Predict the 3D structure of the following.
Amino acid sequence: MNSTFVGGGVAEILSRMVPLVQEMGVDARWIVIKGTQEFFQVTKKFHNALHGRQEDITKDELELFLEINRKNIEELNLDADVFFIHDPQPIVLVTQKKKLGRKWLWRCHIDVSRPDQRVWDFLLPFIVEYDAAVFSAPAFSRPLAIRQFLISPSIDPLSDKNRDLTPETIDSVLTMFGIPKDKPIITQVSRFDYLKDPVGVIQAFELVKRSVDCRLVLAGGTATDDPESGKVLAEVQERAYGNPDIHVLSIPPDSNIEINALQRASTVVLQKSLKEGFGLTVSEALWKAKPVVASAVGGIPLQVRDKLTGLLSHGIEGTAYAIRQLLTNPEYARWLGENGREHVRYNFLITRHIKDYMLTFLAVGRPEEIVYL
Ligand code: UDP
């Protein structure tokens, strides 16, 4: 259960995971809670605050959050052996555990290593009602009175987002977006969100351009549970205005082949996040054997081992330096990309992810059957 069918990493994972698990014979269902715009404004504040950003959240907003969760509880037919709840939006559903029993897991996709204390304290009574918490990276784990599991997200290599594409398909996507192939292309694919630092990406690009001619593609859309994206997109468009080498693409949420093609057409893929949960876009780019420059935040260092599977960067100048290094050393860039693909093959594909889920269900459901090696 989560709060959106489209947009962002959680929807991406569930859209691939649920059908595959069903094919394995598990009676799995994906339920999305219903929210209003005001509700998602509050939960976006939670999201930012848990990532450590300062947010003012009023009592009325907290009450609205609880109220919408209560409404969902009334409307949903909650019936399962294991309830797997993603992120804070539906966290209150666990209050039904007293009535329904069963096993309840809370999976947190946010970097909560340094959360805003007030929001964390508000959520904590709900978190500890779960049987276990699941985090994406070791650094996110918190002192909690419940068990914790580490499960990294994953990508599906056979999805439209990641499968091989013909050169013709890639070219036709570039043509559709009006992106010439005359210069190296640097790309960041992300929701338009401050924490993805799209303006910082433009600044880094401008520094690179001083010595190496290239293009920048900033591609992203919106998520139904993210009300901030319109504002961020407007800022990015304003910042990029008048520069024919910057392509700001606002794309519909189901643009999987388009994103795949943009990643494959890129010379370097960027993920200059200020904060990150896991950063699935990094695995997507590495799987395509692309040299990646990404900030050393959240789950990114699990994917980008610095100077082995990509380059980790700090700040605008550091990012520009790393991009320049890759653009001027194509052999090194190719080597990093190929290592990156192998790293994803072993660690971040959906098959490993499903195995982790099954083991987690076993661990919370039937601890006596677990054999510890
Ligand atoms: N994505 C997309 N369309 C967009 C922007 C992102 O389909 O306009 C996808 C992207 O390819 C990736 C996911 O959404 O699969 C983003 O996951 P990530 O973990 O990178 O970031 P999140 O949005 O969850 O913070």
User: Anything to note?
Assistant: The pocket of uridine-5'-diphosphate is lined by residues 8-9, 12, 161, 189-191, 220-221, 251, 253, 259, 277-281, 284 (CB under 6 Å). The chain has a mean pLDDT of 95.
